[in-house]
């Protein structure tokens, strides 16, 4: 979407507030986009909001799993694993997404 592209441009300029606002609007317009959720997670992480970052990485992973975007599932798991080293909420999200992946692979 246009808002997602705008968000990426704001990331390149390191304007985190406007990047966040752009991705929030993109998420409203397309709530099933794993890419938008992943970008929201990146911005949240840069802004040191680890709980929000964990939530968005988790959403990105579950949406990507549903649409079989396996590289994005992997990226979301990797990011959650990194955050889980110092954050209990991220650890819980990492474990839950891992269970969903195992369940999907078993089907």
How would you describe this structure to a colleague?
The protein has 6 helices and no strands. The protein is globular, with a radius of gyration of 13 Å. With 107 residues, it is an all-alpha fold. It is 83% helix and 0% strand. Helix 1 (2-12) packs antiparallel against helix 2.
From the alpha-carbon coordinates, what is the Rg to the nearest angstrom?
A: 13 Å
> How many helical stretches?
6
| N-end to C-end Cα span | 33 Å
Percentage of residues in DSSP E strands: under 5%
Task: Give helix and strand order, one letter per element, not per position.
Answer: HHHHHH
What's the story with the biggest beta sheet? none
Number of strands: 0
- The class by helix and strand makeup works out as mainly alpha
Q: Outline the low-pLDDT stretches.
A: none
* Gross geometry: globular
Helical percent range?
Answer: over 70%
Q: Taking all residues together, what is the mean pLDDT?
A: 96
Entry summary:
This protein is mainly alpha-helical and 107 residues long.
Output the keywords:
mainly alpha, globular
Q: Helices and strands in order, then pairings?
A:
Layout: H1 2-12, H2 16-29, H3 34-46, H4 50-66, H5 70-84, H6 88-106
